[in-house]
Amino acid sequence: MKLLRVMQKDLRLIVRDRVALVFLLLVPMVVIAVVAETQGGNGSDSIVFPIVNEDQGPVAAALIKVFRQHLDVREVDAATAKRLVAVENTAPALLVLPAGMSRRYLAEKPSTVELLTDPAQAAALQAVKAILLLAERETASLADPIGEELLTIAEHNIAGRRLEFSSLEQSVPGFSLMFVLLDLIFSVAFGLRDEEVWGTSRRLAMAPVSHRAVIGGKLLARVIVGTIQLLSLLLFGHLMYGVPLGESLGTLFLLTVAVVASMGCFSLLVAAVARSPEQIVPVGLTAVFILAAIGGCWWPFFEQPRWMQTLGEGMLTTWSMRALQDVLLRGKGLLEITPELLVLVAYGLVSLGVGLRVFRYAET
Hints:
By secondary structure, the protein is of the alpha/beta class.
């Protein structure tokens, strides 16, 4: 009998916090929906593939026709193509079809086409190479013998030094970022809400210290811990799996501080939304799963449908992943990642400003 009364009491408490109950049901639905959309997305159709067509002949037209069936082909000039691959990193590779290729091909003379790549986008690059082989075979019907002997591919990396990266080198930074974000959200949210449970928030309200100073001090402590955590995870990946640490440790350190600081400020928003300890877990998990999935921490960004990629452009994790890949995989320096750093700093400042304005302890 006593057991049933305790059960009834706990059920009433659970039902009373309707926000926590809604998020408890919403979290798995959101995750399932995101995974389903990604796995059933456009696949290679969303991969941008710039082509510099210097040939303008029938063989080039046949190749491009095949590419358009599988890729987002854009016929552009050489400067634009290189910018898309090496600077903006929106395309995994570009193809240069040389002048006179069609004439030589139809005369059964070999030609060399250039494939200029960004190996940091390994999954997308492999998809491009597979479609390139398919295009060669279909184009072979224009001439005899088989076209594989008539077209030679010369591959060059224009976004870094290495021609390939392992899957672990791609995934370790993403999962490291996710775990640091998870720790920051829960530690900041629970740390602030625990002050209410312990009664510390009432004492702090009467102390000669401002509301902003209290929250700022707590965030700064978590940012320091998070920075150490992220650096340790990246070092673990380097020692165990050979994940590169970039050309400059100083650049990596500054980037890590910027990433963790922006995530720490974002965690304050989660703490403001979750008004009780019971709400923190479902709200926090929802935020982490959405940011990690759509931001490219779990799978390559291009595998998502276009609407999810568009949504991801406004997410903290997307810019963090781009900056980490630029430093770790592409070997870029501090000046080259300045745009990403500015976005991260702006994201953090906006989150901090909104969080300081909306966060309140329940007793105050």
